[in-house]
Design a protein that fits this description.
With 196 residues, the chain is an alpha+beta fold. 41% of the residues lie in helices and 24% in strands. It contains eight helices and seven strands; from the N terminus they run αααββββαβαβαβαα. It has a five-stranded mixed beta sheet with strand order 5-2-3-6-7, sandwiched between helices. Helix 4 packs antiparallel against helix 5. The longest helix is centred in the first third of the chain and has 18 residues. The structure holds guanosine-5'-triphosphate and zinc ion. Guanosine-5'-triphosphate (GTP) binds next to helix 5 and helix 6.
């Protein structure tokens, strides 16, 4: 699937801005107040940034690989990849870190590309479980390594700033594939490297 850039028409942009004005009224403020006049424009542009993952194709990031890695055949792990996403239930921020590891078969990928895959899936409406699974599935499908391990730790603003209001709660999710799922020793090793 190729990355797609969807042009928005002026009419679509105006409708999105009107929706922001409506939300401002909804919370009890006045969209015609001077300080809020430019807010709809800023919000619709900010949304395009928060959700730019819809225009990105994570699989494409992994197509360029390197085979000459001196026979390296151990785990490659990228720890503490910061990301921010939005929960699909409340459109509230999810802020966290992802740890992505894989055991190469015969080729490796540039490490920045693993972080790009995380960002491309994060910048969509998500639940943390699906975000975790999508990152792992994408790496497994394109790189076909011996195994993939993805652990995501995040806080959900919909829990910390509203609703049950429990700041400090972190959610951890993981997806283990291939050897990391089947082999206890390989799984222990990657979990140890991640620092759990
Ligand atoms: N499993 C999972 N749940 C999430 C995630 N993000 C938000 N949620 C939860 O989704 C649920 C939505 O529940 P609902 O009962 O439909 O919504 P709500 O009435 O706003 O729920 P409260 O947050 O409890 O006030 C809440 O329990 C959220 O905490 C996520 O990434 N994964
Ligand atoms: Zn939520």
């Amino acid at each position: 699937m190729a990355a797609t850039h969807r042009e928005r028409t002026e009419e679509e942009r105006e409708r999105a801005k009107e929706a922001v004005r409506e939300l401002i009224r909804w919370v009890g403020d006045d969209p015609e107040r001077e300080g809020l006049l430019d807010t709809p424009r800023r919000v619709v542009d900010a949304y395009l940034e928060y959700f730019q993952g819809y225009e990105q194709c994570p699989e494409e990031y992994l197509t360029r690989t390197f085979e000459q890695v001196g026979g390296y055949d151990e785990i490659v792990l990228l720890r503490d990849i910061p990301f921010h996403s939005h929960c699909e239930h409340h459109m509230a921020p999810i802020i966290g870190k992802a740890h992505v590891g894989y055991l190469p078969t015969d080729r490796v990928v540039g490490i920045s590309k693993l972080a790009r895959v995380v960002q491309a899936y994060a910048k969509r409406l998500q639940v943390q479980e699906r975000l975790t699974a999508e990152i792992a599935d994408c790496i497994q499908k394109v790189l076909e390594p011996q195994g993939v391990a993805v652990v995501v730790e995040a806080t959900h603003a919909c829990m910390t700033c509203r609703g049950v209001e429990t700041p400090g709660v972190t959610m951890t999710t993981s997806r283990m594939m291939g050897v990391f799922r089947e082999d206890d020793k390989a799984r222990s090793e990657v979990i140890k490297l991640i620092g759990f």
